[in-house]
Specification:
This protein has 80 residues and is an alpha+beta fold. Strand 4 (53-57) and strand 5 (60-67) form a beta hairpin. 21% of the residues lie in helices and 44% in strands. The chain has one domain. The model has no long low-confidence stretch (mean pLDDT 91).
């Protein structure tokens, strides 16, 4: 994963976990239902699978994926 994507994901995850806000000034952020590990991004007639990776921060776990095609971060909280 390019370092720019890592920086974007880190910023969005830290903001979401500290404030609960699924938003960002530079990219679109889409909140998915809890415990999702993938989603299908629809752009026109084309569908594309986005696989989410697990991030751990301050004892919290969240699933996060990034689409460079649409510049969208996808978030899903992990619940037990």
């Amino acid at each position: 994963m390019p370092s720019e994507e890592k920086i974007i994901l880190q910023r969005v995850v830290e903001n979401f976990l500290s404030t609960g806000s699924a938003s960002d000034a530079q990219v679109k952020v889409t909140r998915l239902p809890d415990n999702k590990t993938s989603c299908v991004e629809q752009i026109g007639e084309d569908g594309r699978s986005i696989m989410l990776n697990e991030y751990r921060l301050d004892g919290k776990i969240i699933w996060v994926g990034y689409s460079s095609r649409s510049q969208t971060v996808y978030l899903s909280s992990k619940t037990t």
